[in-house]
Amino acid sequence: xxxxxxxxxxxxxxxxxxxxxxxxxxRIEHWRGVVADWEPLDRTQLDGIAAILDxxxxxxxxxxxxxxPHQYPHAA
Length: 76
Description:
Blueprint: H1 25-35, H2 43-63
């Protein structure tokens, strides 16, 4: 988008924090234009998204619980 030569980030090693990649301002403006015509989400849709995020977070917590002998490392 900006013509910069960017190489993909190497995969994160286990235990490392995810790499934060700055967003390209042109890409941000593109998506602002795309979503400008969308209707706002209603309360039911927002609650549904929140419920999904809660389940993902709970599964991630369970997957990283070191005291649990039955943990599933890839549950999230």
